[in-house]
Amino acid sequence: GWNGSTFVPTRNAVYDKIESLSAGSGVVATDTPTWSGSHTWTQIARASFTHASLMTIPTSTDPSAMIEEGAVSWESDRDIFSVGTGAVLKGLISGTTIQVFTTTGTYTPHANMAYVKVIVTGGGGAGALCANTDSSSGGGGSGETRIAIFSAATIGASQAVGIGAAATVGLSGSPTTFGALITANAGTVATSTAGSTTVGFWSDGGAGGTGGSGGFAIPGKRGNPGVVYSTTHGAGGDGAPSFWGGGGTAARSQQDGGAAASFGGGGGGCHTAVAGDQNGGAGAAGYVWIQEYIR
């Protein structure tokens, strides 16, 4: 408790009236606090509480209060501050919100955002075209994913979001960007066997996206290869899955490849053995997922 000069927390004790604080048991007061009422903490201005590096309430930028009301208890053997019912500690995280982008736009943060976790995925590549006779194609590669945490100061007033477009047959995906802070590169288009009837001949899947910038990188995956079984049969390759889920399904004989099922996934490969083209599946567009931590 309070010994007249030092605040010494006691296990499971609740302190509801304190006239001043000084260093003791990991509690540091950087300004002299004030109080009012007989059973309420109020206006502990710019105070910083730390203990054993397990919990820190940073110095407040609001000089009016760090703790407005309620009570705080201390369990010394567990190194834990416990906040009583009704207590409000300014500067701590009070909740989270989610924003997502499936099309290009602008991210404007919540007014009380402290920091954000951002996940950015590039667009997926498509399956290649199977032209005329005796062709199979691999599946498209999936887009790279990058994950980062940024402070409110780094984000600023807003950040532009650029979503990599869905890739149509025969095309690679496009990168997705979060301002200048993150670029997640796209998956590439697959290849085709281009008229071969050699049994066992196969075509590469598209490469996964890699080599972007910002945050922690999760490279995209390569699509599965297409293959020729005979002069009349074959199969495309499955599109590569992304961080968010599956790619497009592979075609069997005489079918188009399937479109990617999840953000940044690669399109499935196709097969043809007769006159007329079959199409590789489309790659999926990129994606940006933002979790805001609110004070």
What does this structure look like?
Mean pLDDT is 76; it is low at 4-90. It is built from 1 helix and 20 strands. The radius of gyration is 29 Å and the shape is elongated. The chain has 295 residues and is mostly beta strands. Strand 17 (226-228) and strand 18 (234-235) form a beta hairpin. The longest helix has 4 residues, at 152-155. It has a 5-stranded antiparallel β-sheet with strand order 7-20-9-11-16. A 4-stranded antiparallel β-sheet has the order 8-12-13-14, with no helix packed on it. A 3-stranded antiparallel β-sheet has the order 1-5-6, with no helix packed on it.
Features:
four-stranded antiparallel β-sheet, single chain, 1 helix, 295 residues, mainly beta, five-stranded antiparallel β-sheet, elongated
Short description:
The chain is an all-beta fold and 295 residues long.
Number of strands: 20
Series of secondary-structure elements, N-terminal to C-terminal:
EEEEEEEEEEEHEEEEEEEEE
Distance between the termini: 29 Å
Residue-averaged pLDDT, rounded?
76
Strand content: 25-35%
Spatially, the strands of the biggest sheet line up as 7-20-9-11-16
Helix content: under 10%
Main beta sheet strand tally, sense and closure: 5 strands, antiparallel
- Give the uncertain stretches in residue-range form: 4-90
Report the radius of gyration as a whole number of Å.
29 Å
Number of alpha- plus pi-helical segments:
1
Structural category is mainly beta
The gross shape turns out to be elongated
